[in-house]
């Protein structure tokens, strides 16, 4: 399968897919561009590891229709930015985009419309399902409508990596998007032809709880949480959805033929997660600059991680109290790590702060890579335009990992698609990843 990787970062999707089936998943094109930055560090790391693909280092908005048309991509993957997806009609009554922030998702739609891939795997922050705050679920509904209008179905799930055996409590929404004329989609339609249950009466329960991609790879308990489930029929008019959507989107669901069924679900994984203590380097290998010894820095961490109430004044003169709950003085080594942010390694509340052998320290770049299931020192070197290989700063390596995804989640998704491609005539309930977990 030929893969087009958009918003490629340092290659998380590619690592996950190649770990699932290196022979099947062949990434032929990758696009990575960091706007407003002279140094394109992430692209240079990607280019260092994957010089065999066509790696494009300019904005996806500048990739022409003709260039996309030249790509015979079977699958598009990417973790796209969470932005403003609202749409509006232009003066000529054509579909237009309201504001500049939302353009990047529409580039995925453009690439899909031109290349017509069989599948897409996409990733985003879980708050997307509730955005924007004034019209919850609207942004996601727009996305579903866009794919429906192109003849695709969408399955989604919010996955906390630690709940499925990984070492980081990172919640992200993953999408499996598939073209409606694929054998997989036809198989689902044939399955429902043999049942008297209609869509509105939980027609997709078996798919969501047992036979879909996420059900087989990431098991869930066989009933909705607190009976939270919803059926919703989307308008084909994407602007109408943008203006008028009033539905609810839960953490699990499927959209087919303009109708979606969404359920609030809970994981059902019997294994144990990898703990923060298990992924740490040998203390003798930790550079001394990661240890915190200065009293003022130790006091700063104590303050940042403690409970606080602070009186603040807004721009319009309104006085209010900002409250923040306390957290443990140091991170528990017997639990998976917390969600990494791009600020990891700086002195702030979100940074992992460890106490090991009675010494305080930060996590290292290698440990940050392990939290995301990257190989050790993956981000240590980069390849410049002149072909020279240089080291990457530790601060930038932390930034990469704060932006990355847990590659083993992608691997498990890839295992399903691999078996789907190789064993397409078997029942979809057999496409189960049986690869041993670490």
In short:
By secondary structure, this protein is an alpha+beta fold.
Task: Please specify the SSE layout and strand pairing.
Blueprint: E1 2-6, H1 12-21, E2 26-31, H2 41-49, E3 54-56, H3 65-69, E4 75-79, E5 87-89, E6 95-97, H4 103-115, E7 119-125, H5 138-149, E8 152-160, E9 171-179, H6 183-193, H7 205-211, H8 213-217, E10 229-233, H9 238-244, E11 252-256, E12 259-263, H10 276-279, H11 295-305, E13 308-313, E14 319-324, E15 353-356, E16 359-362, H12 365-371, E17 381-383, E18 389-391, H13 394-403, H14 407-422
Parallel strand pairs: 1-2, 1-4, 2-3, 4-7
Antiparallel strand pairs: 5-6, 7-9, 8-9, 8-11, 10-12, 11-12, 13-14, 15-16, 17-18
Structure description:
With 438 residues, the protein is an alpha+beta fold. Helices cover 29% and strands 21% of the residues. The chain is built from 14 helices and 18 strands. The chain has helices spanning 12-21, 41-49, 65-69, 103-115, 138-149, 183-193, 205-211, 213-217, 238-244, 276-279, 295-305, 365-371, 394-403, 407-422; strands spanning 2-6, 26-31, 54-56, 75-79, 87-89, 95-97, 119-125, 152-160, 171-179, 229-233, 252-256, 259-263, 308-313, 319-324, 353-356, 359-362, 381-383, 389-391. The strands form 5 sheets. A 10-stranded mixed sheet has the order 3-2-1-4-7-9-8-11-12-10, sandwiched between helices. Helix 1 (12-21) packs across helix 14 (407-422) and helix 5 (138-149) runs antiparallel to helix 9 (238-244).
């Amino acid at each position: 399968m030929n893969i087009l990787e958009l918003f490629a970062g340092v290659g998380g999707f590619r690592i996950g897919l190649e770990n699932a089936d290196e022979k099947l998943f062949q990434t032929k094109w990758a696009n990575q561009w960091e706007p407003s930055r002279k140094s394109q560090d992430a692209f240079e790391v990607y280019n260092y590891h994957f010089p065999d693909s066509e790696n494009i280092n300019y904005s996806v908005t500048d990739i022409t229709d003709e260039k996309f048309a030249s790509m015979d991509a079977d699958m598009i993957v990417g973790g796209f930015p969470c932005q403003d997806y609202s749409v509006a009609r232009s003066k000529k009554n054509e579909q237009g985009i309201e504001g500049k922030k939302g353009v990047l998702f529409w580039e995925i739609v453009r690439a899909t419309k031109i290349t017509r891939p069989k599948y897409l795997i996409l990733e985003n922050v879980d708050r997307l399902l509730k955005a924007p705050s004034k019209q919850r679920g609207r942004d996601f509904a727009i996305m579903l409508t866009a794919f429906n209008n192109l003849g695709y179905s969408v399955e989604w799930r919010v996955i906390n990596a630690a709940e499925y055996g990984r070492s980081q409590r990172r919640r992200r929404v993953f999408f499996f998007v598939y073209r409606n004329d694929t054998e997989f989609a036809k198989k689902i339609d044939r399955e429902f032809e043999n049942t008297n249950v209609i869509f509105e009466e939980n027609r997709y329960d078996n798919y969501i709880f047992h036979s879909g991609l996420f059900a087989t790879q990431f098991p869930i308990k066989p009933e909705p949480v607190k009976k939270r489930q919803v059926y919703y029929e989307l308008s084909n008019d994407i602007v109408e959805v943008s203006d008028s959507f009033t539905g609810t989107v839960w953490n699990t669901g499927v959209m087919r033929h303009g109708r979606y069924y969404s359920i609030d679900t809970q994981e059902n994984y019997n294994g144990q997660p990898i703990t923060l203590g298990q992924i740490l380097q040998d203390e003798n290998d930790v550079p001394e600059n990661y240890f915190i010894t200065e009293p003022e820095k130790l006091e700063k961490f104590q303050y940042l991680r403690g409970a606080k109430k602070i009186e603040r004044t807004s721009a319009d003169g309104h006085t209010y109290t900002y409250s923040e709950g306390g957290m443990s003085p140091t991170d528990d080594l017997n639990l998976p790590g917390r969600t990494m942010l791009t600020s990891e390694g700086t002195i702030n509340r979100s940074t992992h702060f460890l106490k090991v052998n009675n010494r305080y320290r930060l996590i290292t770049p290698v440990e940050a890579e392990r939290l995301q299931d990257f190989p050790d020192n993956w981000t240590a070197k980069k390849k410049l335009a002149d072909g020279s290989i240089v080291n990457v700063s530790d601060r930038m390596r932390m930034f990469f990992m704060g932006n990355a995804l847990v590659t083993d989640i992608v691997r498990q998704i890839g295992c399903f698609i691999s078996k789907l491609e190789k064993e397409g005539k078997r029942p979809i309930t057999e496409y189960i990843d049986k690869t041993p977990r670490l």
